[in-house]
Write a structure and sequence with these properties.
binds 5'-O-[(R)-(carboxyoxy)(hydroxy)phosphoryl]adenosine; 320 residues; five-stranded mixed β-sheet; 10 helices; binds zinc ion
């Protein structure tokens, strides 16, 4: 079964072709980063308009590059939510119209299910059941996964998502957009131990998380440094280091708790923030100690892409 995947929930237009026998055949991504960078964040209306411009040419180009005619498609998968409503509407309209014209099924995919299943596109795939840490710009969730479509939410953030906290930290320190990778890169130059940030909610039972207090702590630390006449690059780097370490350790503590609670020793980490070096290092450390297994998507499939939507849609169509 050959499925066309369309992702347009935020600031990336992602198109992919997934074949349930041959695997991933094509994957094209157009990022709107430059368009939004001048505003310091995603401007929803501009995102929608840009998706409209890019969707059709990208679909045609992806099919042409793969040497596949649109008549060979068996189904179309598109991100139906969550995301920016206008941006979602563009992908949905194109996907459903094309499917109608070709007389093939169209299937809406939950964006976070796409992220969750992204590691399945790798050569070595996790076996079920496993714990999934889903960390993106809008969500932070710990999920028990017993199979495709069998998800149990164990815990989530009560306020800001981990990625959102990275982005707001970047904005505060004027590191530009997109924030996560910039904070992480600057953290590499930071001195660990100069600042110690709290690990939110680790003293409370359960698997819920909160990152809004950490954001405020970061803000207060920076404003205090500035008021003392220190707004140097080094201080910014030290703050990034302390912030990143706090997020990485907090997530790792919660994952350890989830594994213990569910009696599992296999973890999958996905979503944009799963590209983060420190989070991967801390989780690898934990899983090495536990002699467990860790799975991540390749770096380009951590952030938004069409391949994960094509894969998730193909599984749903296969299952009828
Ligand atoms: O999954 P994604 O592409 O979009 C959403 O579904 O939200 O995730 C984007 C988020 C942004 O908040 C971005 O700053 C963050 O992932 N991100 C990172 C890194 N790469 C992307 N955060 C920390 N470290 C990174 N290396
Ligand atoms: Zn995403």
């Amino acid at each position: 079964m050959l499925v066309l995947g369309i992702e347009s929930s935020c600031d990336e237009t992602g198109i992919a072709l997934y074949d349930t026998e041959k695997g991933l055949i094509a994957d094209t991504l157009y990022t709107q980063v430059e368009l939004h960078a001048q505003y310091g964040g995603v401007v929803p209306e501009l995102a929608s308009r840009d998706h409209i411009r890019k969707l059709t040419p990208l679909i045609l180009q992806t099919l042409e590059d793969a040497g596949i005619s649109k008549d060979a498609l068996d189904g179309i998968a598109y991100t139906s939510g969550p995301g920016l409503i206008g941006a979602l509407l563009t992908g949905t309209s194109v996907a459903r119209s094309l499917a109608y014209a070709l007389d093939i099924p169209a299937v809406g995919v939950h964006h976070m299910e796409g992220h969750l299943l992204a590691p399945m596109l790798e050569e070595i795939q996790p076996e079920f059941p496993f714990i999934c840490l889903l960390v993106s710009g809008g969500h932070t969730m710990i999920i028990r996964v017993d199979g495709i479509g069998q998800y149990k939410l164990l815990g989530e953030t009560l306020d800001d998502a981990a990625g959102e906290a990275f982005d707001k930290t970047a904005k505060l320190l004027e590191l530009g957009y997109p924030g996560g990778p910039n904070v992480s890169n600057l953290a590499l130059k930071g001195e660990s131990g100069r600042y110690i940030f709290p690990r939110p909610m680790i003293d409370r039972p359960g698997l819920d998380m909160s990152f809004s207090g950490l954001k405020t702590f970061t803000r207060n630390t920076w404003l205090k440094a500035v008021s003392e006449g220190d707004s140097s690059e080094q201080t910014k780097a030290d703050i990034c280091r302390a912030f990143e370490l706090s997020v990485a350790e907090t997530l790792t503590i919660k994952c350890k708790r989830a594994l213990e609670q569910e009696g599992l020793n296999r973890i999958v980490v996905a979503g944009g923030v799963s590209a983060n070096r420190e989070i991967r290092a801390k989780l690898d450390q934990l899983m090495k100690k536990r002699r467990g297994e860790t799975f991540y998507p390749r770096l380009e499939f951590c952030t938004d892409n069409g391949a994960m939507i094509a894969y998730a849609g193909a599984q749903r169509l296969l299952a009828g």
